[in-house]
Amino acid sequence: MKVLVTGATGFLGGYVIKELLGRGYEVRAFGRNQELGQALIKEGVDFVSGDFTKEAEIMAACQGMDAVVHAGALSTIWGPWSDFYQANVYGTQLVLKACMEHGIKRLVYISSPSIYAAAKDQLGIKETDAPQENNLNNYIKSKLMAERLIKNCPQIPSIVLRPRGLFGIGDNSILPRVLAMSQRLGLPLLKGGQQLMDMTCVENVALAIALALEAKDEAVGQIYNITNGEPRTFKSLLDELLDGLGQEKRYLRLPAGLIGFFASSLEGFYRLFQLKKEPPLTRYSYYLLRYSQTLDISKAQEDLGYEPRMSLSEGIENYVKHYRES
Ligand SMILES: NC(=O)c1ccc[n+]([C@@H]2O[C@H](COP(=O)([O-])OP(=O)(O)OC[C@H]3O[C@@H](n4cnc5c(N)ncnc54)[C@H](OP(=O)(O)O)[C@@H]3O)[C@@H](O)[C@H]2O)c1
Questions:
Q1: 34-74, pLDDT tens digit by residue?
Q2: Does the CB atom of residue 9 touch ligand 1 within 6 A?
Q3: How far apart are alpha carbons 15 and 8 in whole angstroms?
Q4: Could you report the per-residue pLDDT of 127-176, keeping only the tens digit for each?
Q5: Where do the domains of the chain lie, and which CATH numbers do they carry?
Q6: Which atom of ligand 1 is nearest to the CA of 114?
Q7: Torsion sign over Cα 225, 140, 18, 65
Q8: For residue 281, which phi and psi values (nearest 5 degrees)?
Q9: Residues 160/162/166/172 CA torsion (nearest 10 deg)
Q10: DSSP at 167
């Protein structure tokens, strides 16, 4: 089977390529970053340079493919709506169009559980608990709109995955931010860091994507939560990481209410003055720090046969080893 992977030059994309090649797929990697593309070519990967918001480029990339993994996105929590719309909504629309044009037999779309974000503790969230609208930030809004586009296009046999909190070697978002903050200021703990959270080793997400490509037709049209299935308190995860790295644990125990107020005010200020830079604290980050959020993955286990192959502790150990060596 020939599979086009968008976002191939990104964090998750690299792991997807490795997983699919290991399973004997013919993979075509798609992305804009020429330098990373060249590195993929050197590893023997078929890399096509392109932008999925340009119709001709995504059309050409889909030619001759059997399946598409659409993992490319503007994946950050701050920025103007026009950027998120262009990359995540319009881009997905063009991917769907290209899939139709080339008779793609399976599309796996990578969405995000950030769409569940709310100012409350939520344990064991099911896929059907997703809200119709969530305008907490433009990323979330765009991911919900993209999911709707997929749902409204039954001509393409699609499966949507919502993997939560990806981490692993090469992560350029979650762990580097945590470590930078730990070294600069200390890590904020609200409610003692006792909120429960679900994280996912990036290797397990790549596995879930391969399983979605291989799943029976009954899974088509379905949405699946993906995590490691090991809910842990925020503090216990930080303790394990910092102990592994041999770094001092500098926690800042902060009053939740005040931090919530501060996050809303900061966002308001940045919006009012149309500041491009991400505020040091957003309402979304505050929700992550304040509220428990765990996902029910039983549907992916039952329908896709998904069982995480790497535990959180193994993932943290690998990350620590790599961090110490580099
Ligand atoms: N990281 C997480 O914790 C997390 C959690 C839930 C869901 N997700 C989802 O998982 C997917 C992968 O995330 P990630 O962490 O791997 O993000 P990432 O490292 O930022 O990778 C995203 C990739 O998308 C590509 N891309 C963006 N716009 C493009 C365009 N117009 N045309 C072509 N390529 C474009 C970029 O490639 P170039 O740089 O080459 O342009 C980038 O490498 C995303 O859909 C994200 O929303 C991530």
A1: 999 999 999 989 999 999 999 999 999 999 999 999 999 99
A2: yes
A3: 9
A4: 999 999 999 999 999 999 999 999 999 999 999 999 999 999 999 888 99
A5: 2-172+200-229+294-309 (3.40.50.720)
A6: 6
A7: positive
A8: -145, 135
A9: 70
A10: E
How confident is the model at residue 185, as a pLDDT? 87
Distances (CA, A) of 138 to 160, 176, 263, 280, 292: 19, 22, 16, 17, 22
Q: What is the length of the chain?
A: 326
What does the alpha-carbon distance between residue 178 and residue 319 come to, in Å, rounded to a whole number?
13
Contact 68, 104 (CB under 8 A): yes
Residue 173 near residue 186, CB atoms below 8 Å = no
Q: Which residues pair with 48 in a beta bridge?
A: 30
Where does residue 132 rank: exposed (0-12), middle (13-18), buried (19+ CB within 10 A)?
exposed
CA of 246 to the centre of ligand 1 (A): 31
- In the DSSP assignment, the letter for residue 87 is I
> From the CB of 31, is ligand 1 less than 6 Å away?
yes
pLDDT tens digit string along 272-296? Answer: 999 989 998 999 999 999 999 999 9
Active-site residue, from 25, 85, 90, 139: 139
Residue 71 Cα to ligand 1 middle (Å) = 6
The radius of gyration of the chain's CA atoms, rounded to the nearest angstrom, is 19
Residue 149's identity, in one-letter code, is L
* 73 C-alpha to ligand 1 centroid (Å): 4
246: which residues sit within 8 A by CB, 6+ positions away? none
